[in-house]
Write a structure and sequence with these properties.
metal ion binding, DinB/YfiT-like, globular, DinB, metal-binding, Four Helix Bundle (Hemerythrin (Met), subunit A), mainly alpha, about 5% strand, two-stranded antiparallel ribbon, Damage-inducible protein DinB
């Protein structure tokens, strides 16, 4: 959990930068990639990273601009990437101006449970990381190169002068 607002800001800046790199790599065609018939396509997962987390953060008391959770995913990848960039900036500004270290220990109702704001921010980050993992799988299926979040992706080993690990 987070004991300071600055620790959340630092972690969110790192995680959102990785997410932004992936969203910036998307193509309009890749947004239609599905894992299987009847499942949400890549564009829906990407758009979920832009808007739906607002609900969790809104319940924690943060106010910032973000697209509506009921809005349809755009058909242009650049629109998704730009919306994420704007939403991220809004979240960071809200954290800087609306939170204090003491406020992190306040309790809020989250999904019918009592969570501290610190726990909520931690869950928010894990939620993004979870969906980012889904995004990378769908990106690979769509033929879009991915980047490694916590180490090199297969496509990146050569650029760091190392052989791709054997399967």
């Amino acid at each position: 959990m987070f004991t300071t607002v600055e620790s959340f800001i630092n972690q969110y800046q790192q995680e959102s930068a990785t997410t932004q790199q992936l969203l910036d790599a998307l193509t309009d065609a890749s947004l239609q990639q599905q894992q299987a018939e009847g499942y949400r396509p890549l564009g829906f997962i990407a758009w979920h990273l832009v808007h739906n987390d607002r609900g969790m953060l809104l319940a924690a008391g943060l106010k910032f601009a973000a697209p509506s959770a009921s809005s349809n995913p755009p058909s242009e990848a650049a629109v998704v990437a730009d919306a994420y960039r704007s939403t991220t900036a809004g979240i960071l500004e809200a954290a800087r101006t609306q939170l204090t270290d003491a406020k992190l220990q306040e309790v809020v109702n989250m999904f019918g449970q009592q969570w501290t704001i610190s726990e909520t921010l931690f869950a928010f980050l894990k939620h993004e990381i979870h969906h980012r993992g889904q995004l990378t799988i769908l990106m690979r299926q769509a033929g879009v190169p991915v980047i490694g979040a916590y180490g090199p992706a297969k496509e990146q080993w050569a650029s760091i002068g190392m052989p791709v690990p054997a399967i």
